[in-house]
Amino acid sequence: MTALTAMSGALRRRTVDATGSRRARFWVYGLLIAFLLGSAFPFYWSFLVASRDSSMLTEQIPPLLPGGNFLSNAARVFDSVPFWKSLGNSVIVAGTVTFTTVLFSTLAGFAFAKLRFRGRNTLFLIVVATLAVPTQLGIIPLYMAMSEFGWTGELQAVIVPNLVTAIGVFWMRQYTMQVVPYELIEAARVDGCSMIRVYWHVCLPAVRPAAAFLGMFTFMTSWNDFLWPLVVLNAENPTVQLALERLQSGFYIDYSLVLAGTTLATIPILIVFVVLGRQIVAGIMQGAVKG
Amino acid sequence: MTSSVDTDAGRAPSRAAPAPPPARPPRLTWRQRLSVADVKFSPYLYVAPFFIVFGVVGLFPLLYTAYLSLFERELLDFESTWVGFANYATLLGDAQFWNALVNTISIFLLSTVPQIIVAVAVAALLNTHLRAPTGWRVGVLLPYVASLVALGIIFANLFGPNYGLVNGVMEFLGFEPIDWQANRFASHVAIAVMVNWRWTGYNALIVLAAMKAIPKDVHEAAMIDGAGAMRRFFSVTLPLLRPTLIFVVVTSTIGGLQIFTEPKLFDAMPGSNNGGSSNQFQTITLYMYQTAFGNHDLGYASAIAWVLFLIIIVIALVNFLLTRRLASSGTEDGGR
Fold first, then answer.
1. CA 20 to 30 Å from B156, out of B4, B180, B226, B311?
2. How far apart (Å, rounded) are the C-alpha atoms in residues B65 and A141?
3. What contacts B186, CB < 8 A, 6 or more positions away?
4. Are A132 and B313 within 8 A, CB to CB?
5. Which keywords, in A-to-Z order, does the entry hold (chain B) (predicted)?
6. pLDDT digits over B217-237, tens only?
7. Which residue of A has its CA nearest to B67?
8. What secondary structure letter does DSSP report for A40?
């Protein structure tokens, strides 16, 4: 009897929810759309300014539709800074760092998750502890070391410190534990696979989704890195972010020029995002990784 | 690894490695030996790259920073003079350092607190039955693709004192325009807006993942008990999000206290490291950068770095404890 009244109570509650739901849905969608508009606006604004000339900024009510000057402003970006070179540099740096991070992280993740060796737990504890270490604060000795090697101004100075990250190792270990069964590893061992072949043929195919996400995440982080490249590279051999910063410095800021630069620099990442957005979202939600 | 000989074979059989011969078979072939070595040493080989890289570019520089902070050392100089804790003593009396510390914490609070509240709200919106849920999630993450430099440039323009869009809108609505760069608090708000804009959607997805993991029957039980949607949110959802919120707060602490790019690019005088004409939005990392690479004072900059390091560790711990308490006070039974 009591169960019955509880049931009817729940039912009543549900119908109340249903009648109020149209207004509720209106609010849910309305608020989300507002949030998305707010998210997209700065991108649109920078394209808007880049497609006109800076005089639009002085107008009382700025125009809200793009003009036709984007290509000429973009051309001026290429004249003002070595933009092609900076794009190439960023691709080299982010590409290399992504490759090594994924390789070393999957290897270490495999070892920590599935292999037994002395000191494993202690070593993994160290990895976890290093997650919280702000390595950015070590740039002074790092800079001294780089000038000792004569690497300042060279791309390897930006690549080498970022070959592998703690978050990568940590995340691949968690994922490998979940998806690679011990039976499969043992079967491969019985069949005479060496360890490295077990990694290559058993582990790597199984962790591919996580590795792909780690790769995208690393690429974006590296592409956007600013402080360390600013310290160790120079204006002749910049990454994209340094070229952008360079555009903005000067006595008079021509915003159509500068924002044409930011738009150009955002387009490649935006394309990656549009193509792989689903996987990135899935990766964030699965692993709750934060950089 | 001591291969288990007959003396302790009975005592610790469970800890044996994958392939240790219990009693040595007469002779191992060359291939078998290779295989044993493979099992024994491969794991170390696989984890080695991380430890080597971290040791060389992470741990060593941090320790060397501590060592360097005890010296007087110029950037292009090879001579360093031992000064003991003099750099730290100077730091304690350095008004610019305290100013930078207050700025950093102020920007950090302005960016973390609203960000987490909005992220939880957005996650709650995303957790309703939406059409095309993945599309909305991707949309929410959009700001994450903006690089910090692009972001800094765009927002410096939007918050520009003379022709900035934000002031234009405010004037249009009948408010007094604000000099977002000159006014100390306003500049902190503007920088916090940049941080929030980029990270709120990202954190909303993390919170959403945690919300999805809450079992349905907990909600149903609360519903049968007569709890409304609001009540269910505050008494069921929020307490169960505790571990995730701790994670989000601690990670934003570690990142937020090192904030550098946003204040550097927000400066009305591009290329400057001052953080505004009177350092009104100079953060500690920016001050460290200026000291090391603008003023070439490596010893003093190292002291700044090391103090910031300690502050980050302490605040991350405090956050951890505080969030644990705050998130548990929502429930009558203290969470468990």
1. B311
2. 6
3. B178, B179, B180
4. yes
5. Cell membrane, Membrane, Transmembrane, Transmembrane helix, Transport
6. 888 888 888 888 888 888 888
7. A141
8. H
